[in-house]
Specification:
Layout: H1 7-23, H2 26-34, H3 40-53, H4 71-83, H5 90-103, H6 106-118, E1 123-126, E2 142-147, E3 153-161, E4 172-178, E5 189-195, E6 201-207, E7 213-226, E8 230-231, H7 237-249, H8 255-271, H9 284-312, H10 320-343, H11 354-357, H12 367-378, H13 389-399
Parallel strand pairs: 1-4
Antiparallel strand pairs: 2-3, 3-7, 4-5, 5-8, 6-7
Helix pairs in contact: 1-4, 4-8, 5-6, 5-7, 8-9, 8-10, 9-10, 10-12, 10-13
This protein binds flavin-adenine dinucleotide (FAD).
């Protein structure tokens, strides 16, 4: 099997890598290295640079702002973004954008697509509820049709969403709501676009075990949503919801990010002393663990390339997407296990902000060690979000093994 890229693709990789190096905002890089929390503006600064270059939405159809690249170029582009550790808000570009250009009305496309690309609209995803995660179709946030005082048709929405990532930054959210409580679970759901400034919406932070504010509870109390903000037909929202989830899972393997992580782990372990006083990187047990991780990552990469070869010849991703999600997140988590092991006692949990508030000792030890525990804790999320790994295994059992 020839795994080399064609010369024009190798050339393209060089161009993308050089451009990212020259244009990725220095301030964002600095904050990432020190583990400081990103602001909305930090994240948008890079988004806007990509938008201005015309490289923000390669996967979108050209008429809506896509680049028209072949699948290999798109893959190289996303690999190079991950390799450089760039940040992104994927809810607009990777999720609702494709739903809107596929299912949206002409008015919805005109109102939202370009504003999403330019960064003027930041989206959040209102799918999960306290009683509906893996069993998403069991959601109970209710939307009743009413006629407003202005004579217009609205949905009156009541309920709670949870785990809403970056909901604190969002201008708009895409929400799944129940419009027919009498129908079969999947058949009574509608897909609504909700202005997050609407009266009746409360966003409450959830502080995660790593000390970060990434996710939120969102409460909806008598929120009026114009009927024209519904995507696709009433009670057919599940179709758009599933289409979006397929987009969410692709690209979740994070091969390039893990490759970079292993390089970094080797650098770190070189300078850490093991029990016998030598370098941790020379310790046979540690070497074995790193080698096992590299082997799994190589297998993951070839699976991803096989998927890419399939896509290049017109076959869409099948159950490989589920497999890539499971293995990719496992590799990413093991990487943080080993980094924490390298940090040793210097990695004892350290939360941002605590030294400032006088609640914890100032960090000691090598720089990387301060991020080791928070990163370890943060990465636990990856086997839960985007459909938990257990659910991915169920899908593989059904689709591939026919169980
Ligand atoms: C950091 C983070 C960010 C998130 N961001 C968002 C967001 O922006 N928007 C959004 O809508 N949601 C978001 N989610 C929610 C995420 O999609 C859900 O957490 C996920 O679908 C799991 O649902 P749950 O938490 O309700 O767990 P549950 O569904 O209650 O599952 C609990 C456990 O049981 C297992 N389990 C459940 N059913 C089965 C089964 N049939 N077979 C085998 N095992 C099973 C699960 O794998 C899990 O281990 C986020 C979650 C996290 C952690």
């Amino acid at each position: 099997m020839d795994l080399d890229f064609l010369p024009e693709h190798a050339e393209f990789r060089k161009e993308v890598r050089g451009w990212i190096e020259a244009n990725y905002p220095a301030e964002v890089k600095r904050k990432q290295a020190s583990g400081e929390e990103m602001t909305k503006e930090d994240i948008l600064s890079w988004h806007r640079i990509l938008y201005a270059k015309g490289w923000l939405t390669p996967s979108w159809p050209v008429e809506y702002g896509g680049t028209g690249w072949d699948p290999v170029r798109k893959y190289i582009w996303s690999e190079e973004l991950a390799r450089a550790g760039t940040i992104q808000n994927s809810f607009g570009i990777g999720m609702i954008g494709p739903v809107l250009y596929t299912y949206g009305t002409a008015e919805q496309k005109a109102k939202f697509l370009d504003a999403t690309r330019s960064g003027d609209i930041w989206w959040c995803q209102g799918y999960s509820e306290p009683g509906a995660g893996s069993d998403l179709a069991g959601l109970s946030t209710k939307a009743e049709r009413i006629t407003g005082d202005d004579g217009k048709e609205y949905y009156l929405v009541n309920g709670q969403k949870t785990w809403t990532t970056q909901g604190q930054f969002a201008d708009w959210g895409f929400f799944l709501v129940r419009t027919d409580p009498t129908a079969k679970k999947q058949e009574g759901i509608s897909f609504l676009l909700v202005d997050m400034k609407s009266p009746g919406i409360t966003v409450r932070p959830i502080i995660t075990i790593d000390g970060g504010h990434e996710v939120n509870d969102v409460f909806l109390e008598n929120v009026k949503v114009p009927v024209e903000n519904r995507v696709h037909e009433e009670n057919k929202g599940w179709t758009a919801a599933k289409f979006l989830l397929a987009h969410e899972r692709s690209g979740i393997a994070g091969v390039a990010r893990s490759k970079r992580g292993i390089e970094r782990l080797r650098e770190i372990a070189k300078d850490v002393r093991s029990d016998d006083g030598g370098s941790l990187l020379a310790d046979p047990d540690f070497q074995r663990k790193v080698a096992e991780l590299e082997i799994d990552l190589a297998a993951l990469e070839y699976t991803e390339l096989r998927t890419l070869a399939g896509e290049s010849s017109g076959r869409g991703p099948g159950p490989e997407a589920n497999l890539l999600k499971i293995k990719g997140t496992e590799v990413g988590q093991r990487l943080t296990d080993l980094t924490l092991e390298a940090a040793g006692h210097y990695g004892a949990p350290y939360f941002r902000g605590f030294p400032k508030d006088g609640n914890n000792a100032y960090p000691i030890g090598p720089d990387f060690a301060h991020r080791a525990a928070p990163t370890y804790f943060n990465m636990r999320k990856t086997s839960i979000f985007g459909g938990s790994n257990e659910i991915q295994r169920n899908i593989i059992a059904k689709v591939v093994l026919g169980l």
